Every structure is written in C-alpha cells, then in structure tokens.
Amino acid sequence: MSRPVPSSAAVSARMRRQSSRDTAPELAVRRLLHAAGLRYRLNVPVPGMSRRTIDITFGKDRIAVFMDGCFWHGCPQHATKPKANADWWRTKLDKNMARDRETTRHLEQDGWTVLRFWEHEDPADVARAIAAARNSQPRTSRPKQQ
C-alpha cells in the first residue's frame, strides 16, 4: 500500500505531530496508577509478535493495557472518516483494527489479561479498572505491597 499524496501541507504537518506514545490520556492514567502505588513497565514488546508493543504492562501479573486513539483504532463513538484519500485511509484504519484484534487474541491465548481503553475515557475510571484487574490476580504471583 503506497502512501497517497497529502491533501495539504497543513494536514501533513498535523499527522506528523500525532504522538503514538505518551499521549495526554495515557500520561493521565499513568500518573493515577503511580499515585496509587502501582508500578508498571511501558512500551513492552508483545511476546512472539514483532513490531507490536503494549502501552502499559504488569508483567508478573500478565496484564497488558492498551490506550487506543479514537481515530487510529476506530472508536465507534468518535472515529472520523477522512474525505481526502478516503480509500487509502479506510484500508489503513481497517488494518489497524484487525491488528488490534490479532494482538488481543495472541496475548489472551498466551494467558494474558488484555485491557483496552479509548483515549476519551475518563482517566480515573480507566485507572480504577486497571487497579481492579491487577488486584484480582492471585497474590502468590507477586510480592506483597508495603
């Protein structure tokens, strides 16, 4: 799939500025997790899958957290349909969503708990859901919190 010609210099510049890591929603969730005493690793490669990373990982508990952007991952509430180069973008975004499903399946088959959240979700709600998933893991798999 060759890249189309950008519809304008402004659109091209805006797309280049899009961050794939350390987005504002992700940073907000991470701050809340850290404040709650939870420790995690960032951008860990997906075991057995090249060129894929987990946004937030609790490795010993085998919990993978993904913070999905509404545009890039096809949020049912907020995804937009670009008018310029529409066919190229539809193919690109469909592949992103298929890759997300494949990654989730792969991790779950390997015994991981996969949590996916949209960037528009309230960071406090997301952090609570992550903490609840982590706290539901058997205590024997990790050292006790002090």
From TrEMBL:
The keyword DNA damage is assigned to this record: yes
One term of GO molecular function: endonuclease activity
Keyword field: DNA damage, DNA repair, Endonuclease, Hydrolase, Nuclease
Residue segments, region Disordered: 1-23
GO terms (BP aspect): mismatch repair
Compositional bias per record (Low complexity), positions renumbered to this chain: 1-13
UniProt cross-references to InterPro entries, sorted A to Z: DNA_mismatch_endonuc_vsr, Restrct_endonuc-II-like
Domain of life the protein comes from: Bacteria
Family the UniProt entry places it in: Belongs to the Vsr family.
Name this protein carries in UniProt: Very short patch repair endonuclease
